[in-house]
Design a protein that fits this description.
The protein is mainly alpha-helical. It is built from six helices and three strands; from the N terminus they run H-H-E-H-H-E-E-H-H.
């Protein structure tokens, strides 16, 4: 019988906190949403996620690869071609992040109205 630890993101020392922090990063969510459409080249990822710098995209992709969410495929061509895709684990994350993205789009007007009410009351 194997022992499964009780992970709890609310516990300061729990390693699951690192995963939650990575997932909650805005760039991670957008990259996972784009990669949910299929294998993508770096330049196409950068074009799809407006506002992300090449450096931040590279760092985020490396972190996602390290966490087992993204795989990097290098093709032996001239010039070299590199593509990224979600792993099986990464695909389990796509649904929840895509749903959050859809929620954000569906409720933008309400959030903006709430902000306006809040700011005008101050």
């Amino acid at each position: 019988m194997s022992y499964e630890p009780d992970w709890n993101v609310l516990t300061q020392t729990c390693p699951s906190r690192t995963s939650l922090a990575r997932i909650a990063n805005k760039w991670t969510a957008m990259i996972v949403i784009v990669l949910g459409r299929g294998r993508t080249r770096f330049r196409d990822l950068r074009a799809s996620v407006e506002g992300i710098s090449g450096k931040v995209l590279t760092e985020t992709l490396r972190d996602l690869e390290r966490d087992g969410l993204v795989t990097r495929l290098v093709f032996n061509e001239v010039p070299p071609r590199v593509e990224y895709e979600l792993t099986e684990l990464g695909r389990t994350l796509h649904g929840p992040l895509a749903a959050i993205g859809q929620w954000a789009e569906a409720h933008t007007a309400e959030v903006l109205e709430a902000r306006e009410r809040y700011d005008s009351a101050r």
